[in-house]
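A student in our group prepared the protein record below, which I am reviewing. I have pasted the whole thing underneath without changing anything:
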Amino acid sequence: MTVVSISTELPLPAAKARTMAAVPDVMLFVLAPVLSFDMREAPPPGVPVEPGFTARGRVRWLGVIPTWTHEISVRRLDEREIYTNERGGPVRVWNHRLTFEPLGPDRCRYTDEVEVEDGARGALAALFVRAIFRHRHRRWRTLAAAVSATE
């Protein structure tokens, strides 16, 4: 398996960032406008997912160009980590770990780590991961700054 990891510091307590990351609306915000995901089984707006939660939905580029159906299953969710197994379209293996390491009372290090298959398919997936995660982390910093400014 190939592992791709990217980290960024957020101006939020680790527990707050982890709680936010478990809310599908936040996931959709950090992917937008590059990708959207029409989850059919999503909880009500603002409600976090729980371990065992599984959703399938259509991935769209730029919110309009339909691509594959993607499935996400939350396997573990604790105070500092979310771990999912995902798959769909060209992606057969997408094991995603989000971790939130406290750096102080109002800061944390957020890390996205994804394990994808080896080989040509995995190499393409790893390139995609690097690109989309740079975007995700920019959006996370924007969101975290807005949230910390209101608290």
User: Anything to note?
Assistant: The first strand starts at residue 2 and ends at 10. The CA atoms of residues 37 and 59 lie 5 Å apart.
